[in-house]
Amino acid sequence: MPHIIEAASSGRAKCRGCDQKISKDELRFGERQPNAFGEGEMTLWFHLKCAAYKRPEAFLEGIAVNPAAGLDDLAEAARFGIAHRRVPRINGAELAPTARARCRQCKELIDKGAWRIGIVFFEEYRFSPGGYIHASCASSYFETTAVTDRIAHFSPALDANSLADLERAMSPTDAS
């Protein structure tokens, strides 16, 4: 069951990582898995960057079998995700709309209007919501704060000022 990298034959497939369409002729990553619903195997499609960020082990296996030019940066991002085992769980960031969610790291409530980072878990061939962490808990939860590129990828609505504010909130000196 080798994983594959190929150009999308149509624009119908959705990425399992970001839930956005994969455009026709765009390179995509296909993670082969045993078919949970019958015989044979199935393919989970991802944008290349989403695969490197959320499925790093499978992505590195796939590019070892299907070498493609220009994937060195994504391979490095995948290795970073393996080195920091919780980093592939990142699913973007936002300002908390309420004060009802608890941080998975410190177990405290996340204040309304505070930055929170969404977490997902890959279970049964799909990503399931796993809660949130305070931005200030990122260092202890992820064991790094070098995650802004991933957050920006999975939160495309955040502008440069919002990302800078989020980085300040993640800095260890800002922890409360």
Description:
The protein folds into two domains: 4-83, Zinc finger, PARP-type (first zn-finger domain of poly(adp-ribose) polymerase-1); 87-174, Zinc finger, PARP-type (first zn-finger domain of poly(adp-ribose) polymerase-1, 2-Layer Sandwich), CATH 3.30.1740. It is 30% helix and 24% strand. It has helices at 48-54, 56-65, 72-83, 138-142, 148-154, 160-170, and strands at residues 4-7, 27-34, 41-47, 90-95, 115-123, 126-134. The termini are far apart. The mean pLDDT is 93.
CATH class of the largest domain: Alpha Beta
Tally of DSSP β-strands: 6
Strand content: 15-25%
Look at the structure and give the mean pLDDT. Answer: 93
Helix content: 25-40%
Q: Helix segment count? A: 6
Task: Report the CATH architecture of the largest domain.
Answer: 2-Layer Sandwich
- Estimate nothing, just give the exact number of structural domains: 2
Termini distance?
A: 47 Å
The CATH homology group name of the largest domain: Zinc finger, PARP-type
CATH topology of the largest domain: first zn-finger domain of poly(adp-ribose) polymerase-1
Order of helices and strands: EEEHHHEEEHHH
